[in-house]
Specification:
Radius of gyration of chain C: 27 Å
Number of strands of chain C: 5
Chains: A alpha/beta (about 375), B alpha/beta (about 350), C mainly alpha (about 675)
CATH superfamily of the largest domain in chain B: P-loop containing nucleotide triphosphate hydrolases
CATH topology of one domain in chain C: Rossmann fold
Structural class of chain B: alpha/beta
GO molecular function, one term (chain A): DNA clamp loader activity
Family (chain A): Belongs to the activator 1 small subunits family.
InterPro entries (chain A): AAA+_ATPase, ATPase_AAA_core, DNA_pol3_clamp-load_cplx_C, DNA_Rep/Repair_Clamp_Loader, P-loop_NTPase, Rep_factorC_C, RFC_lid
GO cellular component, one term (chain A): DNA replication factor C complex
Largest interface: B-C, 87 and 93 residues
CATH topology of the largest domain in chain B: Rossmann fold
Number of helices of chain C: 24
Number of strands of chain B: 7
Oligomer: heterotrimer
Helix content of chain B: 40-55%
Keywords (chain A): ATP-binding, DNA replication, Hydrolase, Nucleotide-binding, Nucleus
Largest sheet of chain B: 7 strands, mixed
Strand order of the largest sheet of chain C: 2-3-4-1-5
Order of helices and strands of chain C: HHHHHEHEHHEHEHEHHHHHHHHHHHHHH
CATH architecture of the largest domain in chain B: 3-Layer(aba) Sandwich
Strand order of the largest sheet of chain B: 2-3-4-5-6-1-7
Shape of chain B: globular
Chain lengths: ~375, ~350, ~675
């Protein structure tokens, strides 16, 4: 351990850090997550949130802005939207001095949040440079006379912290606007929510998400096999960030396999790359391959009770040994069964009850093997007695 | 002398005998220089750790084999001192933060920060970053996982994480999306047989194919267990043949006995006897959820078809309660009572 | 395993001290030299801070009541001889023979005697009186932060021991006065006086890794190593050395949540010391009511003598309930309290002894344990009120109302002295025999329903959040009540009425089905802890021997026992070991630590005979009991001899009879 932290090492590190700065830039660009790299630059770039975008665009014209609360499932562009809005409001030069991004779940204590907000609000309002350049700048960007504070993951703040935030919002309301970003609007206390205009971000639809993914793939020169885009969208449940991350991971994996053969220097864009396949995407997303699920479903629907038990038991055992995640299995079974037209609604009713119970158990950390076995056997029973 | 399971552990990616495609992928990632954070998951005894160590070797060369164990002391906010063991080489370190229970966040934050803020000591090292292997990542508290997520973002130039977990279910989504998921499935029975055969050959043990098959079967696709069973069988018997007895571990034998007793007699007196055996198991640190699961699977083959799914149902039910409750014996006993009543009804 | 050496004394008899004026060793010793009254005066000085100005003229304590009478009874009327000692004779003999053996050389390989048992069971008094009888001088170790000023009577522990402690720096300085000798061995030979080291104060055991505790253990171990010869070198006949006696008041009652705060010999000393060959453990039990009664009578007599008055008679009922306390110190205090008031020879006339009056006595004369057992009795005997309530006509049986129990769960909870979690655990421990019914089906139904309710109750209990610091809130308390409520209501409505407790034949509890047992479930953690440490030891040893792939096996250590280790590696390792030994020609050698960790059930299967050996004649000292007194049971934790893996310490110390619950 000590060798990690000794002083000489630190000095060396400092020296080499300085030396490698120039080279490091390029390195970083490669490592930079695509999610960041392809974040929308303007409001118009934001994928498929037309309602929210059109309202927000209007605020660009007016010089005022309400406090805002963005909510919706992850990866639907909430943070991207507010960042894009801020960019359009302030332009690149003032962006850093006018916008504070706080991650509520990171800096947990309200005192820290308050301190940071205070410091930020106290700072002088930065203004565009004087003279003709400034006038030009003002023409391009509205630069309203307030700062924006973005509180990401606001729903992970405690109730107390949220109440305290209420006061902070009032104190600095003259010169700051808050934008709370969260997944669950219900976890924001009412007094806070009522101070904000709310924007709901809905999950992305397949077409939009797919289009965006293809664009990125093209820019990054990643070959996508047929169906890979579908697989990406499917595996990420409308979470575009997740989908892009999956895409990057798959590309990385494919690229790695590629270059491993040719040696690291051959890593060149011109070399024809292997395509990202559906399987790779599924593996990266941890999605259980379809035929496993199908076999399981088949076993569950077998007519004789004894046979159903034996075959379900065997398959579940294999699933457990193969290391598939139980929540994933549950999710995929659910999607299959609930959208299965051959099953009656009353039957589905019962089945969904079983799903909810099993899901709760898994969340509580119950044994995955037993829970899945129980789930499948009970569903199998329901199917048999009603089918 | 070392156990076979340790002695014959593969030390490099080449030596791994199954999941060749996976090994290939890991090798490619290691050689590529753009090594991502990994989340390696799969059942116990499937070779996750072995694979990770082999990957590290691929990354850094034999230097990772020179390890030492240090005890570090951390101080919590309430001024409690935590002692925490770290296994490290000059290139990587390995921690099990869940050892310190609810204080795992402190350890994660402090330690990883420290690691990340220093750079590789060995200037000739193949990689600029260091690797931190985190065992039992699925046992980390939510807090610790959140801390981990931040750390991953902040310090990724200097550090890569390899998380080991039995399942991804308890890993929060942000971490899952920031890591490359690597699933290590348990080896198939044939693959286990192969390993047994090669180990047996290396040890100059008599090769009995049928026995190996039985071991593979009994092990439940757990290679570590299979190797231990294999060694135990050979240590205990002079003449090995296809029908040599494979003794189960004592705890399992006791649970099997409990299962038999449940089937034979359904009375309050029996419950009391079983309760005593349960206490015996519990006091020997056998986890209650292991007890209920093993018991259920021991009961299932011995009861009629109609009851099988019932038994599974209740075992899952009480397994959940064991997780949620505090007095596990209540739930174990309720399960036993339930099964007895079912059996009695049927009789 | 706490049990160690070969010459274990029996574990059964039941100690009864008459008083436990702890840390008054010097006084006692001095009392020998001077005449008793003066000794008391001298005692007073140290105790109450009275200076020499206090007139010491009085020779009759009764004549000068102010200072003397102001002392509590348990100090004033402490036993002055072995015969007065309210500890079971056999136990005293055990201790005596050990001390004699060590000092005189018969047991020359023994060094450390561990006396453990609940508070107020007479451990200290026994040792002190024995030391006097045997002519030993007691050197007592005190934590330096103790409140009492050092007196010349207090001498440090043996210098070597002390030296070590000093160096470790965790105890601060010792009160080293008088005794200038530095080497215990030389001083021992030079002094004609034989000595004994008494340790009653211990470092904080909150954390197993606490440095104070570690160095304490180390010091003890060093002492054992340096002075005790190994059993093999028996022939060398070492000089008899100074024995150490440690007195540990183990926390008897504990809930699962309080486990961390509990104080046990195991926590204090760890497996290594407890397993050392030079260490003997003797367990004391709560004092049996019969012996307690004798002791209390003795106190009353002494009191009468002292005050010059008539012997006060508290009446059997009061005496009976006081004698049930089990803790003699507590019992005497209670007795003293009741004798207050008018100062006349009678006890408080309005003594609310009637338990039927909703149990609201002025003073909680029963310890919480007894309340606990009574409360549990109320549940598992499932009494119902007379069927006077209006019942539907016979053709509507499904509307029949269950009879009301005489006591509502709410009332029971209010009265309950113990915490609810312990209460529920005790119900669980004892509900099974109550399920006895006519048909097997009914029996199982009732059993199953009860088990279910208890499971429900546990899920409702707030314990599972205790790790997150929510534990103490009012909500948690309320929740605890709810949990107990569910348990009470559920069990009592699912038990058959009337209850016929069945003899659980073949079960691990022998004897009367009517006995209510203390829940083992609350004790299991102790055993778990022991085994856990044993596992650590085993692993450490194997790592040391290079039998273990260090690092690769992924066990970087830590407090938790890894399931992989316990479920796979160790059991098979044990099998392999056994196989190797057999092949090597020897028959499997004695139990190693390893097999202790992995083997089960020996305690269960080899039961039967063992117990009787371990518990010789539990009845012998109950014969003189007043007839309606609760029969003392074979009490305490029985550590089965030589059997490993046995969890079921039997804890039925405080059992109660059927009749007793009805009143």
């Amino acid at each position: 351990m000590a060798s990690f932290f000794d002083i000489r090492a630190r000095k060396d590190a400092a020296a080499s850090a300085g030396a490698s700065k120039a080279g490091g830039k390029q390195e970083n660009a490669r490592i930079q997550p695509w999610v960041e790299k392809y974040r929308p630059k303007t409001l118009s770039d934001v994928t498929a949130q037309d309602h929210a975008i059109s309202v927000l665009k209007r605020t660009l014209q007016s010089s005022n802005l309400p406090h805002m609360l963005f909510y919706g499932p992850p990866g639907t562009g909430k943070t991207s939207t507010i960042l894009a809005l801020a960019k359009e409001l302030y332009g690149p030069e003032l962006f850093h001095t006018r916008v504070l991004e706080l991650n509520a779940s990171d800096e947990r204590g309200i005192s820290i949040v308050r301190e940071k907000v205070k410091d930020f609000a106290r700072q002088h309002l930065s203004n565009p440079p004087a003279g003709p350049a400034g006038i030009e700048y003002r023409k391009k960007y509205p630069v309203p006379p307030f700062k924006i504070i973005i509180l990401d993951e606001a729903d992970s703040m405690t109730q107390d912290a949220q109440s305290a935030l209420r006061r902070t919002m009032e104190t600095y309301s003259k010169i700051t606007r808050f934008c709370l970003v969260c997944n669950y609007v219900t976890r924001i206390i009412d007094p806070l929510a009522s101070r904000c205009s709310k924007f709901r971000f809905k999950g992305l639809d397949k077409a939009n998400a797919g289009k965006r993914l293809e664009e990125i793939a093209q820019l990054e020169k990643v070959e996508l096999e047929d169906g890979a885009v579908d697989a990406l969208v499917r595996c990420s449940d409308g979470d575009l960030r997740k989908a892009i991350t999956f895409l990057q991971s798959s590309a990385r994996l494919v690229g790695a396999l590629q270059t491993a053969g040719d040696g690291p220097d051959a890593m060149d864009i011109d070399v024809p790359r292997k395509a990202v396949t559906v399987r790779i995407v599924e593996e990266i997303a941890g999605v259980v391959s379809g035929d496993v699920i199908d076999r399981l479903l088949q076993a569950m629907q077998s007519k004789s009770k004894g046979r159903a038990f034996e075959s379900v038991n065997t398959i579940v055992e294999d699933i457990a040994a193969d290391g598939w995640s139980a929540t994933q299995i549950l999710q995929q079974l659910y999607d299959k069964l609930v959208f299965d037209e051959t099953i009656s609604d009353s039957c589905k009713n019962l089945i969904v009850m079983v799903f909810s119970e099993s899901d709760k158990r898994l969340v509580d950390g119950a044994d995955e093997h037993l829970t899945i076995l129980d789930l499948t056997l009970r569903i199998s029973d329901i199917l048999q007695s009603n089918g | 002398m070392a156990l076979l399971v340790d002695k014959h552990r593969p030390r490099s990616l080449d030596a791994l005998t199954y999941h060749d495609e996976l090994s290939e992928r890991l090798r490619a990632l290691a050689q590529n220089g753009d090594f991502p954070h990994l989340l390696v998951y799969g059942p116990s005894g499937g070779g996750k750790k072995t694979r990770v160590i082999a990957t590290l070797k691929e990354l850094y060369g034999p230097g990772v084999d020179k390890i030492k164990i240090d005890a570090r002391v951390f101080q919590t906010t309430s001024n409690r001192k935590l002692e925490f063991n770290i296994v490290s080489s000059i290139y990587h370190l390995e921690i099990t933060p869940s050892d310190v229970g609810n204080y795992d966040r402190v350890v994660i934050q402090d330690l990883l920060k420290e690691v990340a803020q220093t750079q590789q000591v060995d200037q000739s090292a193949k990689q600029k970053f260091k690797v931190v292997v985190i065992n039992e990542a699925d046992h980390l508290t939510r807090d610790a996982q959140a801390a981990l997520r931040r750390t991953m973002e902040k310090y990724s130039p200097n550090m890569r994480l390899i998380l080991l977990a039995n399942s991804t279910s308890n890993i929060i989504a942000p971490i899952r999306s920031r890591t490359l998921l690597v699933r290590v499935a348990a080896p198939s029975e044939e693959e286990i047989c192969q390993v047994l055969e090669s180990v047996g050959a290396a040890e100059k043990l008599k090769h009995v194919d049928a026995l190996n098959k039985r071991i593979a079967q009994e092990s439940g696709r757990n290679l570590r267990r299979a190797l231990l069973m294999f060694e135990a069988v050979y240590a205990q018997n002079e003449n090995i043949n296809a029908n040599t007895l494979i003794p189960p571990p004592d705890w399992e034998a006791l649970i099997a006995q409990i299962a038999d007793e449940i089937i034979q007699e359904h009375t309050p007196a029996k419950i009391l006897q079983i309760r005593e055996k349960m206490y015996d198991l519990l006091s020997h640190c056998i986890p209650a959820s292991t007890i209920i699961k093993t018991l259920a699977f021991k009961l299932v083959p011995k009861i009629s078809v109609n009851l099988k799914s019932e038994v599974i149902k209740w075992s899952a039910f009480y397994d959940h309660r064991i997780r949620m409750g505090s007095k596990v014996i209540f739930h174990l006993e309720a399960f036993v009572a339930k099964v007895m009543r079912m059996l009695e009804r049927q009789a | 395993m706490i049990r160690l050496a070969d010459q274990k004394p029996t574990i059964t008899s039941r100690p009864i001290p008459l008083r436990t004026a702890k840390r008054k060793v010097d006084t006692l010793i001095r009392e020998e030299e001077n005449d008793p009254p003066r000794a008391s005066q001298k005692f007073l000085k140290t105790r109450n801070g009275f200076k020499a100005s206090t007139p010491a003229a009085s020779t009759q304590p009764s004549a000068k009541p102010e200072p003397e009478a102001s002392r509590p009874w348990m100090e004033r009327f402490a036993p002055v001889s072995i015969s007065e000692l309210a500890v079971h004779k056999k136990k005293v003999d055990d201790v005596r023979s050990w001390i004699e053996g060590v000092v005189c050389g018969a047991r020359r390989n023994q060094r450390l005697l561990l006396l453990k048992g609940p508070a107020g069971s007479g451990k200290t008094t026994t040792v002190q009186l024995l030391a006097r009888v045997l002519g030993l001088r007691i050197n007592e170790w005190r934590n330096p932060t103790g409140t009492m000023q050092s007196d010349e009577g207090f001498v440090s522990m043996s210098a070597q021991f002390e030296d070590f402690m000093l160096r470790s720096g965790t105890f601060g300085t010792l009160d080293l006065v008088g005794d200038g000798s530095l080497n215990p061995k030389s001083s021992h030979s030079s002094e004609s006086e034989k000595r004994m080291i008494l340790i009653e104060e211990f470092p904080n055991t909150f954390s197993r890794t606490s440095p104070a505790l570690q160095s304490f253990r180390k010091a003890v171990q060093l002492y054992l190593e340096s002075s005790a010869p190994s059993p093999s070198s028996f022939s060398k006949a070492p000089k008899p050395a100074t024995p150490i006696v440690m007195i540990i008041s183990e926390t008897l009652l504990s809930t699962s949540t309080a486990a961390a705060d509990s104080f046990t010999a195991h926590r204090l000393l760890g497996p290594e010391i407890l397993g050392h060959h030079a260490v003997t453990t003797i367990e004391f039990r709560p004092i049996a009511p019969t012996i307690m009664a004798k002791g209390l009578n003795l106190v009353l007599e002494k009191e009468a003598r002292a005050s010059g008055g008539k012997k006060k008679n508290p009446g059997t009922a009061l005496l009976k309930s006081i004698a049930e306390i089990g803790d003699i110190r507590n019992a005497i205090s209670t007795l003293e309290f009741y004798s207050l008031g008018k100062g006349s020879s009678s006890f408080m006339p309005s003594l609310p002894l009637n338990k039927d009056a909703e149990g609201t006595t002025d003073v909680d004369i029963r310890s919480s344990t007894l309340d606990l057992f009574h409360a549990v009795g109320k549940v598992i005997y499932n009494k119902r009120t007379d069927p006077q309530a209006a019942q539907p006509p016979p053709h509507l049986p499904h509307l029949a109302r269950p009879l009301k129990p005489p006591i509502t769960p709410d009332a029971l909870l209010t009265e309950l002295g113990a915490d609810t979690s312990t209460f529920v655990a005790t119900v669980h421990e004892n509900y099974v025999p109550s399920c006895k019914s006519f048909s097997a089906e009914d029996e199982l139904d009732s059993l199953c329903a009860c088990a279910d309710t208890l499971s429900d109750a546990d899920i409702l209990s707030p314990d599972r959040w205790s790790g997150n610091g929510v534990g103490a809130s009012a909500q948690a308390l309320r929740q605890e009540d709810l949990s107990a409520y569910v348990a009470i209501a559920g069990v009592s409505f699912n038990l058959p009425y009337p209850v016929k407790r069945a003899e659980p034949h073949g079960g691990y509890r022998k004897g009367n089905a009517n006995h209510i047992l203390y829940p083992i479930s609350l004790r299991v953690w102790r055993r778990v802890e022991e085994i856990g440490e044993m596992v650590e030891q085993v692993v450490a040893r194997m790592k040391g021997n290079g039998e273990w792939g260090v690092g690769l096996s992924g066990d970087a250590g830590g407090d938790r026992v890894k399931p992989e280790l316990i479920l796979e590696r160790l059991p098979y390792l044990a099998q392999i070991e056994r196989g190797r030994q057999r092949k090597a020609g020897g028959f499997p050698s004695s139990m190693t630590d390893l097999s202790k960790v992995v083997m089960f059930g020996r305690g269960i299967r080899e039961k039967g005979g063992d117990d009787d050996e371990d518990e010789p004649n539990g009845e012998q000292w109950t014969t003189d009991a007043p007839d309606d007194w609760r029969k003392p049971q074979k009490a305490g934790w029985v550590r089965s001899k030589g059997t490993v893996g046995k969890v079921t310490e039997k804890v039925d110390a405080l059992v109660l009879d059927d009749d007793d619950i009805e009143d």
